[in-house]
Specification:
263 residues, alpha+beta, eight-stranded antiparallel beta sheet, four-stranded mixed beta sheet, 15 strands, disordered N terminus
Length: 263
């Protein structure tokens, strides 16, 4: 009788352990499924999003184009827009895209690096300011000696290249000295204007600009290349946010946009 009881007790423990193991496996599988569902966010598939009164157009990272006229953009509209029929494909470039079917070229920026009206997402990045930096070159292996990293809110003014001339009275030399005089005047005015807004200035002399972003991310910008298709001379960087392009001539900037970005 005692041996029978011991056998029954061992059997009960084994069954209990097996059920516990099954429960743990189910919980583990459930967490995997849940995690997979979170990763399948339709927003992650979007490369560009254009919104206008006439409708919305999605440019997906796989090259597909989806869209619908007079589409309601309230709530989780991207998920609904993803369900619409694919009607075209496109090829992506730095500052524009080309519709493969009708060969239309669609630009992202104007001649001064400002994002054209209607773009809500560009290159997978949500647009918060029309002067937001979106398109830039990033070196594969930036030289640390040629990189300046900014971690605090700053007005960043790019210092022009210093040149010397054998003949300082030459036409080329005179043009350079005139440009330098203009740069000195406008950069000083820009510096003083942003100081009144409580923003310090960093004069950048090196080629590569490193910036800290949220979630321990960082970007490196080659300032000698075009940024948003434009030869930028100054940026405004608020700690933790993508920088915006600033005109060297203070009066050419939209002060309301600047203040909104800083808030």
């Amino acid at each position: 009788m005692i041996n029978y009881f011991k056998y029954f007790l061992i059997l009960a423990v084994v069954i209990s352990c097996k059920k516990e193991q099954e429960v743990q496996e189910i919980k583990k599988d459930s967490s995997i499924v849940k995690s997979k569902t979170i990763n399948e966010n339709p927003r992650d598939q979007v490369q560009h999003l254009f919104i206008a009164n006439g409708g919305s157009i999605l440019y997906l990272k796989n090259g597909e184009i989806k869209g619908q006229a007079r589409f309601d953009t309230d709530g989780d509209f991207i998920t609904e827009l993803m369900k619409t029929e694919t009607y075209g494909h496109y090829t992506d470039y730095d500052d524009y895209l080309i519709d493969k079917k009708n060969k239309d070229t669609i630009f992202f920026f104007n001649d001064f690096g400002k994002i054209d009206e209607g773009w809500s997402i560009l290159k997978g990045i949500s647009i918060e300011n029309p002067m937001q930096v979106v398109s830039y070159k990033s070196p594969k292996n930036p030289n640390p000696s040629q990189t300046e990293t900014i971690s605090e809110t700053r007005l960043i003014i790019l210092s022009p290249e210093t040149k010397t001339f054998a003949d300082e009275n030459s036409e080329e030399a005179e043009a350079y000295f005139t440009a330098m005089d203009d740069w000195n005047f406008y950069s000083l005015e820009l510096n003083e204007s942003f100081e009144k807004l409580g923003v310090k200035t960093h004069y950048m002399k090196k080629r590569f600009l490193g910036l800290d972003l949220p979630n321990h991310k960082s970007i490196t910008i080659d300032t000698k290349s075009k940024i948003n298709g434009y030869n930028a001379l100054a940026f405004l960087y608020k700690k933790g946010r993508m920088p915006i392009i600033v005109s060297l001539i203070f009066s050419d900037n939209d002060l309301d946009e600047v203040k909104e970005y800083l808030n």
